[in-house]
Amino acid sequence: MPPIEYLGLLAGLLTTLALVPQIIRVYKLKSARDISLIYNTTMLIGILAWLIYGILQGAVSLIIWNIIGCALNSWLLFAKFKFGR
Amino acid sequence: MPPIEYLGLLAGLLTTLALVPQIIRVYKLKSARDISLIYNTTMLIGILAWLIYGILQGAVSLIIWNIIGCALNSWLLFAKFKFGR
Description:
mainly alpha, about 80 residues, homodimer, elongated
């Protein structure tokens, strides 16, 4: 793997897993009032678009990060409905 | 431009601009308590890594989206400090 791809992996790791502490915070506070529902749904549609783009391009890392990203964003959306609009 | 790249542009547009309604919501509610500071800082570092990756790859759309993403995430981070941890 060319060295620059490690930077891409790190970038994908950070931007995808950043949502984990956000989900934890919402569950800890039992509140998602400050989270924008439009942010959440737009992000989910965008990540789905990245996933389809990755599948069409055959870009494995894009596919993997965006499957994880879809799962995490769906979880946050679930938490948003659970803990308040 | 190959048709698939329009999908990439749409995906970049959605995942980048999703933050706009989030920033608006924080300002409207004058509260960013539910926003995780770890989420915000991890996302900012991740987007910076994508920006450097884009510059090294000479990928123009990656550079443009991530400059906008950096600006929006910095704004949200500013709002987080302004409206409460």
